[in-house]
Amino acid sequence: MSLTLDLTRATPAPSAPVNLTGLTREGLRQALIDAGVCPPEKAKMRASQVWRWIHHYGVTDFAMMSDVAKETRAKLAEAFTLARPEIVERQVSKDGTRKWLIRTAPGIEIETVYIPDVGRAGALCVSSQVGCTLNCTFCHTGTQKLVRNLTAAEIVAQVQVARDDLEEWPSPKEDRRLSNIVFMGMGEPLYNLDHVADAIDIISDNEGIALSRRRITVSTSGVVPQLPALGDRTAAMLAISLHATNDALRDVLVPLNRKYPLDQLMAGIRAYPGLSNARRVTFEYVMLKGVNDSPEEARALVKLIQGIPAKVNLIPFNPWPGTDYQCSDWATIERFAAILNKAGYASPIRTPRGRDILAACGQLKSESEKVRASALRKAERDAA
Ligand code: SAH
Ligand code: SF4
C-alpha cells in the first residue's frame, strides 16, 4: 500500500490501563501473565473465565466475576479496565433507528447506528476509522480528514454500547435484536485491517458475543491488495462500493479507482476466499440522478458482474449540505432494479432509515459535528 497514514496517535496513552475488551483471546491470556495475575500454566483457563464474563455477560466490573477468586479480581482491577466509553449523544428515530455518538478519547468521536429489521432482528453499522483518507465525491465522511484508525477495543465498544442499550446481555444464541454487523459507518475498514480482524475475532467468538462471521459484512471502496487478507483472516462477508460500471465515471465517484481500476477490482472479487452461492458478494450502488442511473448502466452492471455470486444493493443517495448530487427518482431506481432482477440478481433498494436523526449512509459524524459547532457558536453569541 503506497498510501501513508498518520497513525502516530493510533494507540492510547501508555499510562492508561489496558481495556481488556479489545484483546483477542490470545492477547488476554498474555496480558494476564504479563500483569502477574496468574502463572503461565493457569493463564488459558483464567483467560477463558474472564472472557466469558466480558463477552458473554457483558460485565463492566471485575467484582461481578463471581467464580474468580477475590484477590485475583483485585489484581485485575488494579492492572486493567473494562470501562465503556462515554456516550455523548443518543438519538432514536421515528422508525426505530438508534444512533450513538461515542467518545473514546479526547477528539475521538465515533458514530454507530442500529437499524431494526423485521421481527426482532437488526443490523449494527459500525465505524472503523474517524474520518476517511479517501474522498468519494458523494460521501460526507469523505469531506473529513482522517483523524485516526480505531483500535479493536473501540470497534468492539460500539457493539457493547449497542448491546447495553438494547439490553441484550448475556449474549443470546438466537432471536437476537443485534443480529448482524456491517462495517459501513465511517472510514475504510481495509486501511485498518489488523484492528478490524481482531475485533471480528472477538465479536464472533463462540463463548462471547458469538455472532456468526456470515452475519458480519465488511464494506470496502475497493482496496484490492487487501482483499485476500480480509477473506483469509476474517471469513467475513464482502461488500464492494461499486457505484459505477466504467473507469471514467468510477475515477470521479470513487477516486481510489485510479489506483485500482475496475479490471483489477473485479479480478480481486472473483478470487475472494470462500465466495460461493451461499456466500455472495454484495455490490453497493448509490443512485445518483443523471450520473449513474440509466438503463444502459444497469445493463453494463449485469455484464460487469457476470458469473460472480452476487446481489446488488441499490442505495438511494442521501444528500448533505453542499453536495451537487441528487438522488435518482424512485421510478428510475425501480427501473434499474428491474433490469438487474431480470438478469437473476437480487437487487433490494435500501430504504433510507433514520433520516430524521441523520443516521443514513454517508451522513455520519460530520453532521453532528456541525450541529454541535453551530450550538457552540450560538452559545458564544448568547454569552457576548
Ligand atoms: N468506506 C467503506 C465503508 C463505509 S461507506 C466503503 O466505502 O465501502 C458505507 C456505504 O455508504 C458505501 O457503499 C458508501 O459508498 C455509501 N455512501 C457513502 N455516502 C453516501 C451517501 N451520501 N448516500 C448514500 N450512500 C452513501
Ligand atoms: Fe471513505 Fe467509504 Fe466515504 Fe469513500 S464512501 S469517502 S471510502 S467512507
What is the percent of helical residues? 25-40%
* CATH-defined fold name of the largest domain: TIM Barrel
Mean pLDDT: 90
Give the full name of the CATH homologous superfamily of the largest domain. Aldolase class I
The largest pleated sheet is described as: 9 strands, mixed
Q: SSE string, helix = H, strand = E? A: EHHHEEEEEEEHEHEHEHHEHEHH
What amount of the residues lies in strands?
Answer: 15-25%
Radius of gyration: 22 Å
Q: From the helix content, strand content and strand pairing, which structural class follows?
A: alpha/beta
End-to-end Cα distance, whole Å, is 50 Å
The unreliable regions are 1-12
Please count the helical segments. 11
CATH architecture of the largest domain: Alpha-Beta Barrel
Structural notes for this entry:
- The chain is α/β, with parallel strands linked by helices and 384 residues long.
- It has two domains: 18-81, Orthogonal Bundle (DNA polymerase, domain 1), CATH 1.10.150.530; 86-383, TIM Barrel.
- 34% of the residues lie in helices and 17% in strands.
- The chain has eleven helices and 13 strands.
- The strands form three sheets. The chain has a nine-stranded mixed β-sheet, with helices on one face. Strands 1-2 form a two-stranded parallel sheet.
- α6 links the parallel β10 and β11 (237-241).
- α1 (25-34) packs across α2, α4 packs parallel to α5 and α9 (295-304) packs parallel to α10 (330-342).
- The model is unreliable at 1-12 (pLDDT under 50).
- Bound molecules: S-adenosyl-L-homocysteine and iron/sulfur cluster.
- The site of S-adenosyl-L-homocysteine (SAH) has 18 residues, from β10 and β12.
